Amino acid sequence: MTGRGSVNKKRRKKRYTYESLTETAQYLLDRVPYQPRIGIICGSGMGALAEALSEPLIFPYEKIPNFPVSTVEGHVGQLVFGYLSGVPVVCMQGRFHYYEGYPLWKCAMPVRVMKLLGVTHLIASNAAGGLNKTYKVGDVMLVKDHINMMGFAGNNPLQGPNDDRFGPRFPPMNTAYDKFLTQKAKQVAVEEDLGGMVHEGVYTCLGGPNFETVAELKMLGMLGVDAVGMSTVHEVITARHCGMTVLAFSLITNMCITDYNCYDEANHEEVMDVGKMRQDVLKRFVARIVDFIAKEMLTKDD
Ligand SMILES: O=P(O)(O)O[C@@H]1C[C@H](O)[C@@H](CO)O1
């Protein structure tokens, strides 16, 4: 076979199989003396969340069989195992984005590895632009739903042959974000003095890497989007496909500019700075949520 046909065949061949992901998980399980129950994904500039873990065991992505590598500033590129609130967790200090050149199934691959490691609950964080005008920079938006813009164009991490060992061909997505956990996170936020700064809203992921035009943002606003980013949706779809319970939140790192007379420009430095500025409060927030999952949810799963 020559030309495009053989290129496509090679690409298809490179897809992860259940077996190759099991190999990745086994590599890690051979080196970590416990199974993590909760997975955490750090958003841009929010890598410090992983620093809250005690007894950390660190695996740079380039050392893990079959793992992609992180190429974005603010994403260290390592898996950190450790204990948070006494619970064994695994933390992605650096995630993969579509704009890095990875297909969505590759961006979401670590979620399946987490599943094979024993993770039942995923906490996914991201940095996002605030489109809802009541939000302010530094606020937290608990994701109550998403709009899969890339999915509208037929781009989905579950595209391709389905392996039933992960989940069903046609997974539902109307209950993607766990209501019980989201409510608890809201309560924790109030207790942690984040009360007035925490919202529930709709997130969308665009392909990036450019930030959005005014017209694009106006359109997204009309669709009911509250925060705009470049990640998370494909991870959540993959997590729900394999039956994980999901909580996701966005740190609002900048306000989306929807005024043609405004000449401010979004930039990645600001995104990372706000992540750093809020790192202590987010560490406490995530630790409390992990504690709640351990006390209220994991015991029921056992
Ligand atoms: O990984 P996340 O979604 O937190 O990162 C956002 C989206 C882009 O990667 C970057 C833009 O500054 O931040």
From TrEMBL:
Catalytic class of the enzyme: transferase
The keyword Hydrolase is annotated on this UniProt entry: no
InterPro entries assigned: Nucleoside_phosphorylase_d (IPR000845), Nucleoside_phosphorylase_sf (IPR035994), Pur_Nuc_Pase_Ino/Guo-sp (IPR011270), Purine_phosphorylase (IPR011268), Purine_phosphorylase-2_CS (IPR018099)
Keyword list, A-Z: Glycosyltransferase, Purine salvage, Transferase
Location of the Nucleoside phosphorylase domain: 37-290
Substrates-to-products reaction catalysed: guanosine + phosphate = alpha-D-ribose 1-phosphate + guanine; inosine + phosphate = alpha-D-ribose 1-phosphate + hypoxanthine; 2'-deoxyguanosine + phosphate = 2-deoxy-alpha-D-ribose 1-phosphate + guanine; 2'-deoxyinosine + phosphate = 2-deoxy-alpha-D-ribose 1-phosphate + hypoxanthine
Cited SUPFAM superfamilies: Purine and uridine phosphorylases
GO molecular function: purine-nucleoside phosphorylase activity
Residue numbers binding a purine D-ribonucleoside: E212, N254
PROSITE patterns for this protein: PNP_MTAP_2 (PS01240)
Gene Ontology cellular component terms for the protein in this record: cytoplasm
Its job: The purine nucleoside phosphorylases catalyze the phosphorolytic breakdown of the N-glycosidic bond in the beta-(deoxy)ribonucleoside molecules, with the formation of the corresponding free purine bases and pentose-1-phosphate.
Subunit structure: Homotrimer.
Family per similarity comment: Belongs to the PNP/MTAP phosphorylase family.
Identification of the protein by name: Purine nucleoside phosphorylase
Organism: Ignelater luminosus
